[in-house]
Design goal:
binds iron/sulfur cluster; about 45% helix; alpha+beta
Length: about 425
């Protein structure tokens, strides 16, 4: 439609009002747990990760290291080899994430059909010296060289929003290790295929931003490959061959432990305070329902008012601070009160420095930790006592302090009013 016609039509009187189908206030529908469970069961039944399979595998355990072990806790690697039956089952959410990941992979492989080469036995790779194996996602065609075909090794990953915008070290390492392993592949050599470098294709599965795909080209990094192989050598010699279990490298609440299938087993015997169960206290008399209802709506109103008041306070504070800054005045009289600019001291301890200095003084770990606790606890009396007891020089403590000043507004009532 040309601009002329549009102008003409806009100028014409409206002949008919628009109509939009309104949403209902109440739908004739209820949550359907039956269908949801039916769907979830399909994940469980098709899964390679069901408990039966894990128990069966438990008798055999892992036979060799996998490239993906580079992103795994070394203690978990030990469990995979020697205690696999202690793993908990995958959660349903975990199984859904696996299945979704596979779909994204397939979809992308299909989209790259004209430049890719996958679903062939060459995907399987091995480091013959360390016995580490892996299976790359795909090969991306780069060109011909002599009578070889040249490809980059492609890793496809799905990510949550924000995680796709920079390269994850473990993904980089995985691809680098494949580039190294490719030289030993009979299939690749037999098909006269040379590997030039790597590619990473990240898909933001949350679709939270306009960009969905984030792709990176990787140059072969021999220094990093050497580090990766050294790490695997350590895993093989210390964990796998000598059957030594390493200490826990992560805290209980860490992301690594939270998603680890061995968490319950790994932390057995260590008391972790859990959230107290919320149960009714029968000795407490409940308030009248009428009072509860009125306080509930009052509470909601007050919360809204609080947010509004806080926003307004911030605006007023900004203006007053600007006034004090511009005039050099320290206070402003308003009716019977003074609004004053004040500075509050904020002290932070340089923990690294303090710990290094304390470690020079005491080699006894328990004493060191007790002193550390006393000095870093927010109780001034403990610090003063430690200084008086000669456990730390006050000068050293001062050196560890980082002091900053925070500007605040205070309100004071005028004297005699
Ligand atoms: S629970 Fe944590 S420390 Fe234990 S194996 Fe798993 S990741 Fe490692």
């Amino acid at each position: 439609m040309s601009t002329e016609i549009i102008k003409h039509k806009i100028g014409q009187p409206i002949e008919i009002k628009p109509k939009v189908l309104k949403s209902q206030t109440e739908l004739k529908a209820v949550p359907d747990a039956e269908l949801r469970d039916l769907i979830l069961q399909t994940y469980r039944s098709e899964s390679r990760h069901g408990h039966e399979v894990i128990s069966e595998k438990g008798d055999a355990g892992r036979k060799n290291l996998w490239v993906t072990d580079l992103r795994r806790c070394p203690r978990e690697v030990y469990y995979k080899f020697y205690e696999p039956s202690k793993a908990r089952e995958y959660t349903e959410k975990g199984l859904v994430i696996f299945a979704d990941g596979k779909l994204h992979h397939k979809d992308l492989q299909w989209r790259l059909e004209h430049v890719r080469l996958a679903d062939h036995p060459g995907g399987y790779l091995k480091d013959p010296e360390l016995g580490v194996t892996g299976y790359y996602d795909d090969l991306v065609f780069v060109g011909n060289e002599d009578d070889f075909k040249v490809y980059d090794i492609l890793e496809i990953k799905t990510k949550l929003s924000g995680a796709a915008t920079s390269i994850d070290q473990a993904d980089y390492d995985q691809d680098q290790y494949y580039q190294y392993m490719a030289q030993f592949s009979d299939w690749l050599n037999g098909h006269r295929i040379r590997i030039r470098g790597g590619r990473l294709a990240y898909k933001d599965k949350s679709h939270m931003s306009d960009e969905v795909y984030f792709c990176y080209r990787l140059e072969r990094d021999d220094a990093r490959i050497a580090e990766i192989r050294n790490y695997f050598r350590w895993l093989k010699e210390e964990i796998v061959d000598k059957k030594q279990i390493p200490s826990r490298p992560y805290e209980y609440e860490s992301t690594e432990c939270t998603y680890c299938l061995f968490r319950d087993f790994c932390w057995q015997g260590i008391v972790i305070p859990s959230k107290p169960a919320f149960i009714a206290d029968e000795s407490t008399e409940p308030p009248e329902q009428e009072l509860v209802d009125s306080m509930a709506s009052h509470y909601l109103k007050m919360r809204e008012a609080k947010v509004e008041a806080e926003t307004e306070m911030k605006k007023a504070e900004a203006v007053l601070m600007k006034y004090f800054k511009a005039t050099g005045q320290g206070s402003l009289a308003v009716a019977d009160k003074q609004i004053m600019r004040s500075l509050t001291k904020h002290t932070e301890l340089d923990g690294e420095f303090l710990f290094a200095e304390l470690s020079k003084q005491t080699k006894n770990l328990r004493q060191l930790l007790n002193l550390w606790k006393a000095l870093t606890a927010p109780k001034a009396s403990l610090v003063q006592q430690a200084i008086k007891d000669g456990k730390i020089d006050a000068g050293l403590f001062e050196q560890a302090k980082h002091i900053s000043w925070i500007e605040l507004l205070r309100v004071k009532k005028n004297k005699g009013e």
